[in-house]
């Protein structure tokens, strides 16, 4: 009976329109739309990856081997299960144009293919010719295709010659699109495609050089991918095989999309929290305006339950409207902007209306609306009829009845559980929730402190009426200092944290590069070239330091006789191949944390020195046995020591080092890092590359630029999410300013009656807004710096320093945003006639 009556009353209340609820709807819709849009884009990318899995991979399945070609047994098995087979060789090298001192060199990622490539999809070239035609031999020169960025860097034109190793090639076309580029992962240089046959005399694929081979399989339509994967792994995994199939054709991309999408959704939840503050403020302001209505209903006999249900239903209907609006906007935005998004994506996407992310966003919106409207509604229920006409909501007790506290706790727990389940990252969800709660607590405490300090400051500001009026207003209950500090402060906190993380991450990569990082990595140095290589650098006064080491690649397949992943899980050391070296004596600057190094003349069973930090993460101990597959051969050694390995210097660092006898006879090359003055780098490259054309040089600064480009895209994505949160905070500010218009009209009328000029009143209003925004910015900066430090220290494990340019922008932005929102609703109060305002208050 009470619910039916409440529904009738709520329906009548809704006939009054949306006055007072525009900000409510905007905050809720914007937060839901951001989450829905991010989820829809992620679903579109996942659908594209699933649909184009075979095309992205270049076949139905791929078998990948490290620095060797497949054996006869492996080839026989592949031919037995596949209808067609394509072999690809992938490695880095130097493309060279010209001779001697005038030669131009550029790092390139070479893909050497056979006649069957590509099994699926097509290579797009400019001019529009077939790949077979482009790679054909003309006048003794095999053809090659190259990406535009490398063509421009080397100053090439179609038909010009360039060298890779000792082999001369003819540039026949520009590589416009590579169908399987997403499966190749991160590359340090632009792509060049040649035939494997043309590299026979290039000296680039000698035993021990660094390359990988990928065998793409075109399987029968009824092939069971899961069964074939299990069979291939059981037969060949101990030989270093890595299997991928079209069920997840670009696993690295898919994992990245999942993690970025989860992170952005959690940023979106932060935006919903900001919007929740606005929702709560809007409900409070609305109920304050309904004092006479509620008083009349209570006087006529309406119970507390009826009052609560009436406005709960009304707010619920409006919340549903905001959620529907947000879901619609979030679902349609990716469709509208699909051409722009697809142009920026290196992978296919299938944008459509996906129910799952829209439902997820709607659930988040419902729970957020419930959490932030329950307390204001519950407090209204507690007000006695006799006090409803005397600013009831200001005199109600702060905490509602225990049943509402329990409902709030259950809703919050459900929201966190769903966020962890939907995102798939429980630790990130809990950290985000803790960060939001901590920031809200800090901001709430700051709001109380600001009011207290303003109250004291108002007494001290004698002789400065404008400042005194501003401080007195901030300390009063009607100014809404808490809403301003909470809404704007939380939005600025998210933006500040993103700015600090981005700045520190870039600083960790690019900062102080000449002091901490080498100039070049040189790889594929053959044994008989090491003496000449070392001699050239030793006689150069511009070279500060040279570090060289034998270089092999191996895959850890077993730990103590058990499959490695069964023992150490999905640790990153087990994901693919890792660098392996050997050393008779313990290298300089090496510090053992446990165990001992082998004797210089040791000739017993293989011994291993392992990186201490990674060993701890994998649960390894001294005496454990590791089986490492190197070039198809299993080598089982015993861990004799753990040592510190510092990868942050960008120098040589190996997870795994063995005694020389363990790797005797294994073909390998050397790697070297060269620390030199920047002005001497070009000459060093010319001399060494000219003398040893098979050597590949990776300029560290260029590699860092490539990484920085990737980080820039990631930072942009997170910044967009933070900007949406900040926009929500600004809308809350607008709502708070609109809600306080009545109080400011009365205040301006009183001040005018006492002789204050419009200019003085305007300055007072502006001063209080700027002070509140400045304080919100300072507190948000503290929260953002704390959040940035936590992420940098615990997650990225980088050093942290405050990015002051970003910090100052946050503080200034807070003051300007609050000032702009306030001034938009100032002209009405200062233009109101005092007589009309004061007469209406009688």
Automatic annotation (TrEMBL):
Name of the protein this chain belongs to: FtsX-like permease family protein
Membrane topology: Multi-pass membrane protein
Localisation: Cell membrane
Chief place of localization: membrane
Keywords (A to Z) from UniProt: Cell membrane, Membrane, Transmembrane, Transmembrane helix
Domain ABC3 transporter permease C-terminal: start-end pairs: 266-380, 723-828
Transmembrane segments: 21-41, 260-287, 308-341, 361-380, 401-422, 428-450, 765-790, 802-825
Species in which this protein is naturally found: Roseobacter sinensis
Top-level taxon: Bacteria
